[in-house]
Amino acid sequence: MKQPLAYIHPAAKIAPSVVIDPFVTIDANVEIGEGTRILSGATILEGSRIGKNCTIFPHAVIGAIPQDLKFVGEETLAIIGDNTTIRECVTVNRGTAAKGKTVVGSNCLIMAYAHVAHDCIVGDNVILANATQLAGEVIVDNHAIIGGGTLVHQFCHLGAHIMVQGGALINKDIPPFVKAAREPIAYTGINSVGLRRRGFSSETIREIQEVYRYIYMSNLNVTDAIERIEAELPATPERDEIIQFIRNSKRGIIRGYFA
Q1: Is 119 a residue of the active site?
Q2: Helices (H), the chain
Q3: What would the pLDDT profile of 88-130 be if each residue is shown by its tens digit?
Q4: Cα–chain center distance at 57
């Protein structure tokens, strides 16, 4: 259903079941999947690809050009997965030549006033709370929950199943399965509640805790801690995910905090 007071470019590809409220703007080179609703005042610009059963709230802007002076008009995308909710005044910029696309995955909740900058890759089942700001080329892995008002430095990598306190300033990578809080941002334990809610067994949670004891509580540097983990702890998918994350970290991981 398309309101006559909405502007829809004739070249936009919109599934028949999409609901478009008055005063929506939809540009050329836009694709919107079945069952999605675009609420009044939202703006969907060139290069946007929005999946099925999404809801885009008033005054959100999807697909605006990057806020990057290196951008010279190259054709890039802003991709939103299925079943994702984009709340009021959210901005999701499209990519640059660096990656060619900005991606927000499926089943995500991007709360009001959040910003997802150029070339960010946000996984599935992610929550970005109100006014969270992701700088360019940030990666957020599946099931991460980022508290409101958090600022994330460009190129940071936030691991899967993490919980970050609101108002955090993040300038290092946050490895998977942890809670991060304090000022400056630091490891404060395992996100055990979130892991249990997602079906992780008590045994698996204990194994994850043991890995992080080596990393944060052994008085070893990170390189030595990983060598000890590989030598002394049995291989599991979670152990290996943590090790790979840390080895691939370009900005270094957050430090531990213990009162």
Answers
A1: yes
A2: 192-197, 202-217, 222-232, 237-248
A3: 999 999 999 999 999 999 999 999 999 999 999 999 999 999 9
A4: 18
